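Possible regression after last week's pipeline update?

I re-ran a chain I had predicted before the update to compare outputs. Posting the input and the new output here so someone can diff against the archived version. Not blocking, just want to make sure nothing changed silently.
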Amino acid sequence: MALMLAGAVIAQVFNTLGAITGNVFIFLVISFLGNALNFGLNLLGCYVHDLRLQCLEYFGRFYEDGGKPFRPLAAQTKYVDIT
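New output (post-update):
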């Protein structure tokens, strides 16, 4: 519902920007480009949410954890303990 509301607000903003000019041709150009961008963003959002659900469903079934923990800033000293 939040994505739908955000898409409606984006469409309203581009339609208002086009209406400010007062020219019908410029309104159509701005409205078309803005709504095309909005449509593309919504398609990308649909893809990302579907991909997220696929990863959540299938990683739990086929993924086996293991290995060593990730410590990017830990100093590996041999004789001294650093706190």
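Follow-up from reviewer: compared with the archived run. The chain has a mean pLDDT of 85. Marking as no regression found.
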